[in-house]
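Deliverable D5.2: sample structural annotation.
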Amino acid sequence: MRVKVNELLLEKIKGIVSYLYGIDFADAILDGHDIEVEISRSTGRVRHVFVDGVMVLTLRASDGYLLPTIDGMKKVLEKLGPQYYVKVRRDAAEYIARGRSVFTKHVIEVDPRIRAGMEVMVVDEDCRLIAVGRALLSAREIRDGVAGVCVKVRRGALE
């Protein structure tokens, strides 16, 4: 069931996003004229957040965090530039954009604020958004080249 957001609910949503990513990130992602939420009938909790008809946040049921979707990350990228990002080599970008995981050997740059378990944007060398996923390693571990998958892609730009 979709409903318009009242001021109290909007502040709660902004608070959750600000806790994870900061106030500027929350303002960038929730910038719009028409903000609606989809409420779960069984739990009464926010499932998805829509800005001007586009889903920008979705609920992760395991911890109750509202995570940015690929469209939400596009809004942030347009307004603030790369935030909480992992930059990958050109030769791996197409595979990642199709939903493949990011391996540390493909990473050329990483935002130092990234913590394991955080939802991050994956960008190519030209800072175009190619995917959104969950960081499995911290920024330091990624920089140090810990072998293996560093971002489990949730949604690629070409999916």
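Annotation notes: The mean pLDDT is 94. The CA atoms of residues 104 and 144 lie 9 Å apart.
The annotation will be released with the project's public dataset once the embargo ends.
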